[in-house]
């Protein structure tokens, strides 16, 4: 859809069109099934984890509150992105209102930052549990989790608010066709006739500052954990700690790596198909939410027992 050439105010734009995989419509049909299954898995697994922690009194501890927060963030991210993508795939419902587009943009950026920060707090929790076990009850308390949650909210609300504001202030005078399945900041901003240098710089600087610093601190935490684990002399203690922390770190690495690949494909967009970054963007909003509750939750013995206990009560 091409807007009238005399449009000079962003308020005159009533909607955008999300234009994804139009060069290969068969890809939409092939993707819709695995994407639907991943979405159902993510929603079901995270909901189960939340309900189990809420109803099982023995799980009312700081570590499980952090898991609840991660599950809540995963649910919001999935609901923000995947239903709209599936509506495009199934019914070609590509229009999205101006306000809905920028709201989606804000939630995606804000909640991805919150998830990264939650991984950091959880890595610190594991660091204290393994490297300073005697001090763990005094450091990781309900008050600590409450303060951590407030920090996660405040930091990401503050850092990501300018992203939709800067994009919303631009003039959209010509095309309103977004070459993406989601309202990614730069995919929308480049439709404007204005200079978007500030938008690009803020997205890049903000992303590297927030997500980059989180990953560095997470990597340091697991480095200290690895060093402490290798010193454990109790039989099987090192293997158990490595198994738990290793699976956690792999998920965090996957979360960070897919973001890095997404950035690199945008930088080298002339060398890859335009559909690749779009596909990575979609998968990044559904694969980690589907895997997180399984690795963090189901592999934790206490949560597994809590789920089984609830199932027995239901039967």
TrEMBL record:
Keywords: G-protein coupled receptor, Membrane, Olfaction, Receptor, Sensory transduction, Transducer, Transmembrane, Transmembrane helix. InterPro entries: GPCR_Rhodpsn (IPR000276), GPCR_Rhodpsn_7TM (IPR017452), Olfact_rcpt (IPR000725), OR51/52/56-like (IPR050402). Its main location: membrane. It is a multi-pass membrane protein. It comes from the Eukaryota. It is found in: Membrane. GO terms for biological process: cellular response to lipid. Residues 45-296 form the G-protein coupled receptors family 1 profile domain. GO terms for cellular component: plasma membrane. The chain crosses the membrane at residues 31-52, 64-90, 96-123, 144-166, 208-230, 242-264. One of its GO terms (molecular function) is olfactory receptor activity. This is Olfactory receptor 56A3-like. It comes from Monodelphis domestica. The lineage of its organism: Eukaryota, Metazoa, Chordata, Craniata, Vertebrata. The gene is LOC100618838.
């Amino acid at each position: 859809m091409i807007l009238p050439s005399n449009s000079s105010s962003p308020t005159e734009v009533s909607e955008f069109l999300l234009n994804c995989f139009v060069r290969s419509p068969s890809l939409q049909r092939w993707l819709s099934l695995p994407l639907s299954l991943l979405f159902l898995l993510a929603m079901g697994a995270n909901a189960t984890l939340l309900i189990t922690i809420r109803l099982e009194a023995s799980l009312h501890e700081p570590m499980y509150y952090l898991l609840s927060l991660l599950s809540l963030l995963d649910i919001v991210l999935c609901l923000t992105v995947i239903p709209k993508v599936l509506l495009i795939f199934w019914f070609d419902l590509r229009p999205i209102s101006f306000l809905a587009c920028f709201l989606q943009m804000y939630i995606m950026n804000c909640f991805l930052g919150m998830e990264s920060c939650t991984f950091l707090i959880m890595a610190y929790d594991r660091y204290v549990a393994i490297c300073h076990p005697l001090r763990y009850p005094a450091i990781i308390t309900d008050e600590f989790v409450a303060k951590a949650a407030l920090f996660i909210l405040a930091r990401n609300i503050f850092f990501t608010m300018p992203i939709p504001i800067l994009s919303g202030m631009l003039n959209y005078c010509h095309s309103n066709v977004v070459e993406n399945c989601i309202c990614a900041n730069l995919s929308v901003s480049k439709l404007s006739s204005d200079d978007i240098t500030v938008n690009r710089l803020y997205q890049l600087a903000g992303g590297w500052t927030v997500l980059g610093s989180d990953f560095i601190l997470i990597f340091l935490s697991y480095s200290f954990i690895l060093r402490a684990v290798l010193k454990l002399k109790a039989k099987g203690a090192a293997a158990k700690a490595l198994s738990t922390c290793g699976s956690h770190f792999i998920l965090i690495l996957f979360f960070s790596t897919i973001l890095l690949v997404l950035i690199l494909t945008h930088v080298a967009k002339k060398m890859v198909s335009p559909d690749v970054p779009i596909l990575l963007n979609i998968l990044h909003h559904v694969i980690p939410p589907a895997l997180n509750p399984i690795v963090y939750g189901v592999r934790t013995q206490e949560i597994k027992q809590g789920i089984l206990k609830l199932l027995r009560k239901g039967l």
